[in-house]
Amino acid sequence: MLSQPLQASFTLPNGAEVTIETGKLARQADGAVTVRQGNCILLATVCANKEPKEGQDFFPLSVDYQEKFASAGRIPGSFFKREARLNDYEILTSRLIDRALRPLFPEDYFCDVQVLISLISSDNEVMPDALACLAASAALAVSDVPIKEIISEARVARIDGAFVVNPTRSQLAKADMDFIIAATEKNLMMVEGESKECSEEDLLQVLQLAHDAIRIQIKAQEELRIKVGSPAKRDYTKPLQNEELQASVAAFCTDKMNTIAKGGTAKGERSDAFSALKDELIKSLGEEVDGSTKKLAKKYFDDLQWELVRNMMLEDRVRLDGRKMDEVRPLAMEVDPLPTPHGSSLFTRGETQSLTTVTLGTPLDELLIESAAVSDYSKFILHYNFPPFSTGEVKMMRGVGRREVGHGNLAMRSLKQMMPGNEYPYTVRVVSDILESNGSSSMATVCAGSLALMDAGVPVPKHVSGVAMGLISRGDGKYAILTDILGDEDHLGDMDFKVTGTRDGICGVQMDIKVDGLSMEVMREALMQARKGRLHILDAMYECMPAARAEVKPHAPRMEKIFIDKEFIGAVIGPQGKVIQEIQKETGTTINLEEVDNVGEVSIFSKEKEGLERALAWIKSIVAVPNVGDVYDAKVKSIQPYGAFVEFLPKKEGLLHISEISWKRLENMDGVLKEGDMVKVKLVGVDQKTGKFKLSRKALMPKPEGAPEQTDRRNERN
């Protein structure tokens, strides 16, 4: 018999009730809860091994968020008709949870932990990603898996000037700010989001509102934990310690390590020096030392490096490469380095380099973005690639990793703020290939992407740049904020804070915090220092490429977009698509036609200008309404004794009377015209009774001097 489930609930500022429940589902997991808002239900489970694997010296946490298609009453569209690998949306949601949960575990906890969150019932108006971290944290809270604190996440969006916590899907579609924030009772842990050029003060207001909402969610989790019986957190095997060895490592390495750290050398030289010192340390221990002792000595070496470099920055205000705290590394950039892509750029900042290309496609190239609740198409795509040679490593080339998906998404969300709207007919794909990496290749992607878009002639109004910020802090209140952090500074620091934007505001933010007690004042200082760095990079970008090209490059597909009356859509398409297929075949174009708001939108794409002009003229002729006085290129369809019948528009014929062919009197049609001839004519009238069109060729010819007026001979027909 099932046990009676236990519940705790809270109410969102918009009046929606959220219920957390445990004790009914997945009872063999170490912790399991469901979170429900409306018809949206998430199931979160956590399982952890009792002991770490032998020799394991890192924390193996895996977090997977998956949406079951049955939750929305749908069958997956794949060949096997079942859920397969996580899609990008599920990966990004998994990363949001992972980044928030990871700092909660003790530093010496090395047992495998698996957190699984599944959407088992979908609600079209409830965004499940804003509830997924709440579910994961609640599953940990009711378990005996050791965590230091309880957390939660909240989404805050600005809609019509007002801030809304956990807005509905319909509301979110109208937002100009959209941020997801994770926090404990006291501290912010993670920020991810986008905005249409918001100010730093706007962002700080969002963080404060989110933190207030999160505290309510944490209180509900604590209430549920008490109802479960507040299970004691399990004990676990601690890593071996050797204080004598630790002291020996410090005595041997401290001075030499300080010399290397303060040398201001490049990444490779510095890395080689630290590696050589580590080898020297291991050699000094003697041949008789066993493998576990050597491994522990290497750990103490890394710990000492972490402490010494951080203290160097805090006390001496000196960075590993010799820069000032707010200094951006040297910049180098160029546009159009590649002759064939539709747009390209090479952006280098210090030892980080991105080669980025832009490809312009048709609406047929749009990307299908599918989740359980929604299937939509995107006309803007950004892909980020991080090959192993960018860091001088040898690794297997496998599929795209979560890191690449996450970094590419941040760059995409940032650049998307400046992209033209749906009226822009091209599908745009940006690809960033990282050729070198030593700190914030995602921010290099934003800068390179902005330059490449302008090089391609995409009408983006402003450049977007990005900069990665770091934080080094200590318990005594000392801290240092670092602009344009190195890879080593990211590893050694307490915060990784990426900010993108234009000269007028913030477009994207991604922040992970590893330390307790980050105040709003420190956040404000970091944001303002980031703004200074962002503007410095933007100045260099505008010098390289002041504005988008007025036109696409000659080898890029040409495009024209026209709007036609709804009644002509069928005529352009033709029976079973024959007309539009013929136009595409004869002109070498790609044509996309759709009805939007009772108007036909026709987009024509062609690699050749001539083909585009032919297709455009063809379609215009189909939808054209004959106007008296207009001139047409007509095709002779048949010859009669009294003139020629010509087609001057598709499916529209008129009589070119023998008296209207020339100023010279013609006795008959012999040798004058033949079927298939092209002749330029002018529409001179429409018979009000019959609707027949009256055409003239001579009206387009200069009247010979002294030529008599010809009489209309149409009544001569017997």
Can you characterise this structure?
The protein is an alpha+beta fold. Helix content is 30%, strand content 30%. The chain has 14 helices and 29 strands. The strands form 6 sheets. It has an 8-stranded antiparallel β-sheet, sandwiched between helices. Strands 1-2-3-4-6-5 form a 6-stranded mixed β-sheet. Helix 5 (243-261) crosses helix 7 (291-316). The longest helix is centred in the N-terminal third of the chain and has 29 residues, at 200-228. The chain is elongated, with a radius of gyration of 35 Å. The N and C termini lie far apart (102 Å). 39% of the residues are buried. The mean pLDDT is 89.
Short summary:
By secondary structure, the protein is an alpha+beta fold. The chain has 14 helices and 29 strands.
Please outline the helices and strands.
Elements: E1 6-11, E2 17-22, E3 31-37, E4 40-48, E5 61-67, H1 88-101, E6 113-121, H2 129-141, E7 152-159, E8 162-165, H3 169-172, E9 175-183, E10 188-198, H4 200-228, H5 243-261, H6 267-284, H7 291-316, E11 331-335, E12 343-349, E13 352-361, E14 367-370, E15 375-378, E16 380-385, H8 402-416, E17 427-436, H9 441-455, E18 465-473, E19 479-483, H10 487-492, E20 495-502, E21 505-513, H11 520-544, E22 558-565, H12 569-573, H13 578-587, E23 590-596, E24 599-606, H14 609-623, E25 631-640, E26 643-649, E27 652-657, E28 678-686, E29 693-696
Pick out its properties.
single chain, 718 residues, alpha+beta, eight-stranded antiparallel sheet, six-stranded mixed sheet, 30% strand
Q: Strand content of the residues, in percent?
A: 25-35%
Helical segment tally?
14
Radius of gyration over C-alpha positions, nearest whole angstrom: 35 Å
How much helicity do the residues have? Answer: 25-40%
Largest sheet, described in full? 8 strands, antiparallel
Q: Give, in spatial order, the strands making up the sheet with the most strands.
A: 8-7-9-10-21-20-18-19
Shape: elongated
Distance between the amino and carboxyl termini = 102 Å
Q: pLDDT average, as an integer?
A: 89
